[in-house]
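Lab notebook, bench 4. Still working through the backlog of constructs that have no structural model yet. Next entry is a single chain of 274 residues. Request: give me the structure tokens for it.
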Amino acid sequence: MGKVIFVMVDALGFDTAGRRGGYLEHLTEYRLAAKYRVRGELPSASRPMYETLMTGLPVSVHGIVTNQTSRRSRCENLFSLCKKSGKVTAAAAFLWISELYNGTCPFSIYEHRIQNGGGDIDHGIFYSDCDYPDTHLYADGEYLRKTYDPDFLLIHPMHTDTVGHPFGCASKEYQESADQSLQQVAILLERWREAGYDVIVTADHGMDELGIHGGNERIQRQVPLYIISDRVKKGDFTDHEISNLELAPFVCKLIGIEPGAGMKQEIHIEMENK
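Model written out:
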């Protein structure tokens, strides 16, 4: 039985994470964290990959095929599976997460920003402006953690995606945004670990030089995965790729709940033999 904080940095590409995630790279280098190279499903777009990461299912199965597919999830997901097992869930995230897992379609900032009960996410703070500062978003997540002690907490900053679209992944704006977001993880990580959480840091998709994603380029699909957990074998495992379909069943394993129907049975993330 365990608790998990799942940080999904929107549009954080694998190469950028390696260049800008100084503290997470340090933990990997000193074998205090595990790092993996993740190949995302297609399309490499936000809302489809939110659903893939939370359900462990490909797009052709879960049906969230574009960013314009606005409806509640019809599949078992990490939030619903936790609730079925009597766990507490929370999210500090973009409005599409609220629409997917609490059914607030269409989302209204006046009605749905703060939520407590009524969906798969027990406690939520949601934003609708894509340039909502990541510092505020991490603070929202930390408030949810301290107030409700959730078993599964999603923290979803979007500023890196927001500046990536007009400036591209090679720009100072994109690189600096990724750096600032990952610095927030570094600031909060010790208190998360002291509170008993395993921590996952990953992304939904990457971003290309033109500020575009959604297609089949490596730079758009390949994202990092950092895991800080005493139950996971530590080190750099980026010599091969794993699928982002593995993340949802892996989180189920960490929390100690049954995975959803259709989730992958084979997971290539190495556990400690304890």
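Notes after review: The mean pLDDT is 97. The two ends are 14 Å apart (CA to CA). Flag for follow-up if needed.
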